[in-house]
Amino acid sequence: MKHIHVFAVLAVTTLSLGGSILSSASEEGYDNTAVLDGKLPPAYRDWTLITVAHEEGNLNDIRAVLGNDIAVKAYRDGTLPFPDGAVIARVAWAYVPSEENNKAFGHAQSFVAGAPTHIQFMVKNSREYATTGGWGYTQFQQGKPSKLDVAACFSCHLPVKNRDFVFARYSP
């Protein structure tokens, strides 16, 4: 009887652990290449913030750079090249002055995120994307996949080859 009780406890524990692992994998990793097939990761907005940036010029946007668990662990550990399965997201909004904040300050000095512009993803799969440094690229506008010149993405990332083609530096 004691053996049956121990077996039952082990079975329940294994099922619980397996369920949480599957839950985590389906939410976090689901299939990291699915984003390149036009499927937004289900919870990408809950990923960890890597850094923020402001891009001037024609883009004039404000950006949040997010990473899935694999990417964030690589950033924190200083792992280069990034391991396969790492996904980095760049969420961008128009960079606009905040009328409310500027009224409070008495002069123009505050800027905030305005209308969303687009979301870009980099997915690491060194075998599948060997010709682009191991990274696949995609872009979404208004939640839908949009045209993106992958060769142009890669050529833009060449100057940071020594950082595995990743511009964003981790801001702990």
Topology:
Elements: H1 2-29, E1 48-55, E2 61-67, H2 69-77, E3 87-97, H3 99-105, E4 111-124, E5 135-141, E6 144-145, H4 150-157
Antiparallel strand pairs: 1-2, 2-3, 3-4, 4-5, 5-6
Primary descriptors:
172 residues, alpha+beta, Chalcone isomerase, 2 domains, 4 helices, disordered N terminus
Describe this structure as you would to a colleague.
By secondary structure, the protein is α+β, with helices and mostly antiparallel strands. Helix content is about 30%, strand content about 30%. It has four helices and six strands; from the N terminus they run αββαβαβββα. β5 and β6 (about 145) form a beta hairpin. The radius of gyration is 20 Å and the shape is globular. The termini are far apart. About 25% of the residues are buried. The model is unreliable at about 1-30 (pLDDT under 50).
Structural class, from helix and strand content?
alpha+beta
Whole-number radius of gyration?
Answer: 20 Å
Number of helices: 4
CATH superfamily placement of the largest domain: Cytochrome P460
Average pLDDT score = 84
Q: In angstroms, what separates the terminal alpha carbons?
A: 53 Å
Beta-strand residue fraction: 25-35%
Strand order of the largest sheet: 1-2-3-4-5-6
CATH architecture identity of the largest domain: 3-Layer(bba) Sandwich
Shape: globular
Q: Percentage of helical residues?
A: 25-40%
Strand elements, count: 6
Total domain units: 2
CATH class of the largest domain, please?
Answer: Alpha Beta
Biggest beta sheet attributes = 6 strands, antiparallel
If you consult CATH, what is the topology of the largest domain? Answer: Chalcone isomerase
